[in-house]
Structures are given as structure tokens and as C-alpha cells.
Amino acid sequence: MTTEIIQPARALRGVLRVPSDRSITVRAAILAGIAEGVSRIREPLESDDTNAALGCMAALGVQVAPLGGCDPLGLCIPGLGLRGLRAPAQPLFCNSSGTTMRLLAGFLAGQAFDSVLDGSEQLRRRPMRRVTEPLRRMGAQIEDTDGGAPLVIRAASNPLHGLTYDMPIASAQVKSALLLAGLYAGAPVTIREPAPTRDHTERMLRAAGVEVVAEAEGDANRITVHPPHEPLRALDMLVPADFSSAAFFIVAAAITPGARVRLVEVGLNSTRTGLLDALRAMGAAISVNNLREEGGEPVGDLEVAGGELRGVEVGGALTPRMIDEFPIFAVAATQAHGVTVVRDAEELRVKESNRLEGFVGELRKLGARIEATADGFVVEGPARLRGAVVDSLGDHRVAMALAVAGLCAEGKTTILGAECVAKTYPAFFRDLSLLVAGC
Ligand code: S3P
After folding, report:
1. What angle in degrees, to the nearest 10, is found between the helix axes of 326-335 and 355-365?
2. Which of 323, 325, 344, 354 to mutate to test ligand 1, by most ligand atoms within 8 A of the CB atom?
3. 99 C-alpha to ligand 1 centroid (Å)
């Protein structure tokens, strides 16, 4: 177990390109494997989660190689086509990557071979019936283990059935699993999501030539994938920096008086950037420059300056747009004047940890006035945080949020189990010290 010590920082300054997007890299690895022709994925994320996705694709026969020539930072993935994968000799090991397991469950349900999906103890504890149940409605032969992994998938002898599905929770992973299964269905698959969730799968499928139609229905969204008549086109894309990794530095800068941080080439898909809306409503000074499109995704540079924040209420359709940012948002709320209330965030209980109880408990050890509620949390600020020994609970986003809290605490903060940041951001502590040293 690795321990990290965080000392208080007076200010933060510098320019950073945080590592690439985990959600996009995992999707690119999967889609490239079933496309026809050679995909070029530039600047993919290299982390425990993306290694798990690439390892599973390799076990299905996909030969991933580094990009050669003048563009060495990338992957070259010769696709095997929709029906060219080979049966894996052993269970596919997804490590702790929920995205890998749920998305693979979708497209493996349509394959003509048996497979088993398994993962770490942490992943085995996460709910999988949310994907196995609708997949069974499509005629898939898929069994979970008491609602979780391992998942046992039997060969599909016929095309899967079409489906119209009202998703009970706003989950991009469930939606993506069903869209990928839809590639192997005999009729369209339509999913209604209660609120818009990240749409990277839809964008990437369209780039591969698949017909995907999205329609707004009030606050909700209706997405239909049509079974493709042509092979999927190979991808040629640059993966932007991960907004969810940038979030730690956005908040660190926003709560530190005198801070000025620029984060470049950040993915700014509006289904992901709810944190910007919430922080701006709190009074944060954040500007977006150089807005452009890369590989079908909006990308830009963010400039964040430190200042005073005030409490805010977050709920409804904003919650899924910042679902991975609540541990770090809670840290921002501890420094804001007044009360911050978060609602509609029950999903936080089934992330890498019971995140809600987890970060609430650990932030209280630092002196935060924060309480968990049935579907979110309430914070009273501003609080003078005091360094203490805290635990990551094996959750990368809790570890990184506690590190930022440590920057504005008095005295030193010791983070136990800090190695879990490798899930999405292996060099997090190095990058944090670069910004602290930049002052
Ligand atoms: C993800 C979707 C979200 C998010 C997770 C990554 C994805 O999960 O929390 O970190 O890549 O699709 P849910 O879709 O289960 O909310």
C-alpha cells in the first residue's frame, strides 16, 4: 500500500495537459477491434482501466501495436470485423474497470462463442443486473452471479432481438452496452434515458458509419441504434484530456486564492462538464479558450483563477453530467460560503466504493462539515480543514479529492492507499506537485 503526504499549498500555478479520457479510450479499444481496417488512436490513456480493456480485446484476438512513424504516441489496432473475434481461452479479466465489463457484456452477448467476464474483488461487488436484465430481454444468454460478476455469456445462435427500453437509472454504461448489443440485433434498439448521460459511444459509432439517432424528450433522451448493413469503418482519432481528471485541478485552482491554472486540450463534451456549470454558479472564474472539435468530441483549454465561492444546489439533470466529480465537488463546497446541497446522486453508492459514505466520512476527518443524505450530501462552508490521516478506500477519485483537500488544510495530510490513482491517473501526485512548485 502506498502512502502520500500532502502539505498545505499557498497557491497553484502552471499549465497542464492531464492524461487522456478513460471513457473514450475504452470505447475506442472496443470499437477498433470490431471495425474493418486499421484504427489509429492517438494519445490514448495508459492506466489500469484502459490496460484492462486492451487486455480483454487482445484475448479476443485483436493485435494492438504502438503507432509507428512520426506519431509514436498512440495505438494501431487492426480490426477483425463484427464477426471476426475469436473465443477467449480464459475468463476475460476486467480488473476494476466497470466500463470495460459492462460494455464488453453488451457486444459479447451477440457473439457466436461463449465467454466469461470477471474482475477484481472491487468490481465483483458492483451491480451488473442493470446490464444483464435488458440484455436477456434482447434474447442474450447471459447470467450474472448474484447480481454481479462473473458474467457467463453463451453463444448467440441467432441475431439478438430489437428492444425498446426505459432505463430506470441514468447510466452511460448500461446505454452503451445496449447500443453495442444493438450491432448484433435483427431490429433497432431504442433506449430512453431519464436524463442525458455521456454520449461518447453514440459519437464513436456514428464516426464508424453506424446510424444512431438521438432525440430529446423533455428532460429525457431517446437513442436508437440501427443494425449496420456495412462493416464498421476504422477510427482515426485523437483522445482529448479527461475532463474528470482535469476536475481535480479545476477545483484546486478555484478554491485557492491567487491561483491561476491552465488545462489544455480538455474534452468538453457537455454531457461531462456539469462541474463547470456548478462551479460557475458558485462564482468561480473559469474561461474556455480555443474551443474546437477533435475526433468528433468538443475540446478546449480551460483557464481557472482562484476566488471566493458561495454554496449552491445541484440536482436533476445536472447530477449525471457531473456524476464522477462529486468527491472533488464536495471539497469545493467545504470552502464555499453557505450551504451546498446535492440531490439525485444515489448512484454514488455503487461506484468504485460506496463513494457517498466514503468521501463524506474521510472529509469529516479533515474537519469538513458534511453529512450524507439518502440521495446526496449537504455541506456547510467555509470550513478550516486540518490535516489528518485519511484513507482512499481503494477509490481513485476519493484519493485525488482528498489530496486537493489536503492542499487547503492546515498541517500535513496523509493519504493511505494512494496507489489506486493508477486506475485513471497514474502520475496524479507528480502533476499536483508540479502545479504547487509552479508558484
Ligand atoms: C462511465 C459512465 C459512468 C461513470 C463511469 C464511466 C462510462 O458510469 O460514472 O466512471 O465510461 O460510460 P454510469 O454510466 O454507470 O453512471
Report:
1. 30
2. 323
3. 6
- The SS3 call for residue 114 is coil
Atom of ligand 1 nearest to the CA of 197: 14
Q: Name every residue whose Cβ is closer than 8 Å to that of residue 210 and which is 6 or more positions away in sequence.
A: 183, 225, 226, 228, 232
Pocket flag, ligand 1, residue 172 (CB < 6 Å) = yes
- Taking only the tens place, the pLDDT of each residue in 268-281 is 999 999 999 999 99
The three cell numbers of residue 402 are: 482528498
Q: Best substitution site from 31, 173, 319, 397 to test ligand 1's pocket, by max atoms within 8 Å of Cβ?
A: 173
The pTM for the full model equals 0.98
The total number of residues shown for the chain amounts to: 439
- β-sheet with 212-217: strand ranges across: 163-166, 189-193, 220-225, 212-217
Which atom of ligand 1 lies closest to the CA of 324? 9
Residue 345 clears pLDDT 70, i.e. is over it:
yes
Q: State which fold the 3-20+240-437 domain adopts.
A: UDP-n-acetylglucosamine1-carboxyvinyl-transferase; Chain (3.65.10)
Q: Which residues contact 273 (CB under 8 A, 6 or more apart)?
A: 243, 321, 322
Domain 22-224 has CATH 3.90.800.10: no
Domain boundaries, the chain: 3-20+240-437, 22-224
